[in-house]
Amino acid sequence: MINSVPFRLAVKQSVSCLKLSEWRALLFALMMAITISGLMAALGDRIERTLMRQGSALLGGDLLLSHTRPLEHRYLSTADKLGLRHTQVTQLATMANHAENFLLVTVRSLTAPYPSGQIELDSPSPSPLPSSGEAWAEIGVYERLGLQPGDQIQLGNHSFTLTRIIRSAPDRGRGFISFNPQLIIPEGALEGTGLLGPGARMQYRQLFAGSPDQIKVLATELQKTIPSGVQLTALKNDESQQNSALTKSSSYLRLSALFALLISAMTIFLSLRRFTQSQFKRAALLKSLGLSERQLLQLYISQLAIAWLICSLTGISLALVLERLGLFLLQGLLPQPIPDASWFVYATGAILGGAILLGMGIPALLVLQKSNTSQLLQSRAVRLSWRGRLPYVIALFTLIVCSALYLNNLTLTLSLIAILLIAGIVLGWLGAYIASRLTQRLAPYHRLGHLLNSRVIQQQRWYRVQIPVICLLFALLSTNLIALNDLLGRWQAQLPAETPNHFLINIQEWERAEVEQLLQQNGIVSTLWPIYRGRLTKVNGQPLADVLTPEQLDQPSLKRELNLTSATGIPEHNRLVAGRWQPQGGVSIEQKEAEELGLEIGDQISFDIAGREATAEISSIRTVRWDSFQPNFYFIFSPGVLENFTPSYMTSFHLTDNSADVSRQLISQFPTLTLIDVRQILSQLQQLLERLSLLSTLLMLLTSSAGLVLLYVTLTQELEQRRYENALLQTLGASQHQCRQLDQLEMGLIGGLSGLLAVVITELSLWSVHQQLLKLEPALHPYLWVSLPLIGCGLFIAVSQLSHRQQNLNHSYQTLINRI
Amino acid sequence: MTQTMDTVVSAQHLAKQFQTQAGSLALFSDINLEIARGESIAIIGPSGTGKSTLLSLLAGLDQPSSGQVRLNGTDLNQLSDRARAEFRNRHISFVFQAFHLLPDLTAEQNVMLPLQIRNHKNAAREAQEWLCKVGLEQRMHHKPAELSGGEQQRVAIARSFATSPSLLFADEPTGNLDEHTGEQIIEQLFNLNQEQNTTLILITHDETLARRCQRALHLHNGTLREINE
């Protein structure tokens, strides 16, 4: 094979073709496709495997019971009888303190090592769990509080010595809590901290591991006996992990990468077309010299295979470098260690690139194979017949298959490609139409106006490709960057200066007076709200299952304990919309909650509060401003209804940057209180979003370079046609300067128009992102309306200047007579 | 040779050489030619003798290696790019073998092109009038692909006369047409030439066609000879 004539010719051609711009564009696009898909596959795989390592090592067991109240010991006895391994975990999120620096952490204490999975430490420990007075912490705790092993850390009113660094540990928990740096303390130590009051956000878990049969028996047993509220999770249905923010981000990055992949595929398609066109006479010549059709096909397939091999090697190398960069950006946000990706994952890009090249290349090569030696006798360039729509159909089919494999989701792929196709067609048509109408209108106002209009009419077909590509690329880039910035900036900006930025929870009855006094002494105005943790159990005396629809039963508020309160006055950010405020024995319900559960004024509702029942009649419905950063409640009872229950208290207040002293006083005087600094949560969130934004910027840069190459290819696609047009204009009396000016006017117009349409798409997308996702008041972005059209304008002019230099008059006539 | 007021084209000691890998190749070295206003002349000769190159030199599209070309008394090589372009637009037109119409523009828009270059106010009306003169009043809004070869060449003729040139260069104008259509086109070309008092320089290898011109010149081995001599 290697010594065959076609292969040797293919090697020579691969080198000599480097002087052809279409061959270089093809190589670049192929390399980008391989890099981007390889990078996203590897990075995505490693992020996903880190976050949801499919196995009990992450969960900590094969079966897990969890609840916000302590779990009964009898479940452990049942497990013992079945011969299963188990442990009990108590967990809460709280502020850790060192030298008056505070950090929100997740603290866990275990009764025994995890039945499945290991806690990996920086150095071996003589015992499987921390000894008394010790704590093990993740690197994040050390880094953020500036600690070293051996230092002390304060949790509640107890101090611990940090002895080990946790490299990885199972059972990180879910949701936002899993982003907090983790601490593990000895069994029972949590009780000693005084953090476990009635209002504390506790999580109690029992984890079990054993053979699949044993687990099955236990699961059946537990399902029969566990009370409502206790959640049973088996390894196979632990899907909640998949909803974590980082996993979503990884899917989002994958989707963004798909756009880059589609752009690259389009570039490959167009470059191959031009390459085939340029090779037609050469193929005919080789045939006339005795090469058979089969050998000709072998020659060009070998040439594409060489291109694929070179692009795969460079693409994968580049992907490896960029992957390191990506992981570096996410350092500290992902639990360590990050598992390695298999070689197959890195090869994904190369396989995908190969499939695209094959799908796009074979139809072109078949055309080339049919070259006719008689065409050598013609002096002019041969125009190829592309046999109708077949190459397009094959290319589209290849794209769909490759994208579906890449996203691993056919429905999503089909919908995305359909959306992109429709958007592309509409934008292309709209852009070309506006360009033609605009130049027609403006023609009398510029010396070249009429010529520009003729040029725009002449180039309509290409505008339908160029405008949507650049427009969608710009829209994707700007939506991405602005959505993240808006989320951070405007979120912070919409909090008025006096918005509470601290929450104090877990205040016990006996601490209430002293806390109020301390706050008053510091000039802080705040209301202490009693908190009762309860779950809605009955409506009008009937169990929920009998009166609510399956959809209503699926409401998240029914799946957890709610914070209930009682008050005489209506809270500041609430508005009464129906009923009477707090008659005796009444309860006020939030409007949306009432709508979703189908509850009305006059309905009797019952709650299970710490095992006892409390019932009240709905007497009013009110609206709540959830983003007010004030304590907000679905249910507010009339005073008296809950008088036999013991509450804890919570409050929120505003502290300026200079009043850190108040925090210190609160923590030192009441070590068991939980003080949540919202600014810190926002700053942790900001850090996460900034890193993700950097990562997506990296991806956007790759997408942009793919887009630029496509722009270059589409502009040079008609290079001969443009040269010819300019030659004709010059013989008709246009100067070289006029032709150059005409080109610049045209490119500026098309670039500006692409930018302008991109602004419209961006604003529409941002409007829906703001409304639906970020829950922010949508607003226009005036700077976009100026910057994007200008960038588009400059970009088109620059690329067109690079892609075709003006020919001088001496060659114009020759260009015309050569084109007979 | 003295140049009179009625001389439109005056070429003196015209030479054109090309650099090739094998060295310098002279296409012609000493060509002298005077063409009077309203005159029609044909340049004939076998392929590869440099007919088209001579045409591009005479039209000021290319520069000679040595010698001088004056059109209407102006040496085009002394003009700036802009002035030369303006001169071409005002005084010179071309009719090509391959018509050279832009495929996505209608017949009317194609005829408008040279008028738009000079920013003519009534380009559309002028183009319509010329299309009527060449008998294409029904085909104004058709694109080249929708027209026959003869019709396309008539659009090209309308385009070339629309600027009222003093000099018309026609390079094998019937080369892409069948005999019958070719004759009709030539008829139209000569009629309009007479009507407009345009100087016609026709490049052809067809001796019958050459004979219809007032003078015929033969380009061979780098020399230009009057056939009548």
Structure explained in plain terms:
- The complex is a heterodimer of chains A (820) and B (229).
- Chain A is of the alpha+beta class and 820 residues long.
- Chain A folds into four domains: 1-55 and 247-408, no CATH class; 63-209, no CATH class; 472-497 and 672-820, no CATH class; 525-653, no CATH class.
- Chain A is built from 24 helices and 21 strands.
- In chain A, helix 1 (5-16) crosses helix 9.
- Chain A is elongated and about 100 Å long.
- Chain B is of the alpha/beta class.
- Chain B has a single domain (7-226), classed as P-loop containing nucleotide triphosphate hydrolases (Rossmann fold, 3-Layer(aba) Sandwich), CATH 3.40.50.300.
- In chain B, the strands form two sheets. Chain B has a six-stranded mixed beta sheet with strand order 6-7-8-3-9-10. Chain B has a four-stranded antiparallel beta sheet with strand order 2-1-4-5, covered by helices on one side.
- Chain B is globular.
- The mean pLDDT of chain B is 86.
A few lines on this structure:
By secondary structure, chain A is of the alpha+beta class. In chain A, helix 8 packs antiparallel against helix 11 (390-407), helix 11 (390-407) packs across helix 12 (410-442) and helix 14 crosses helix 22. The relative contact order of chain B is 0.19.
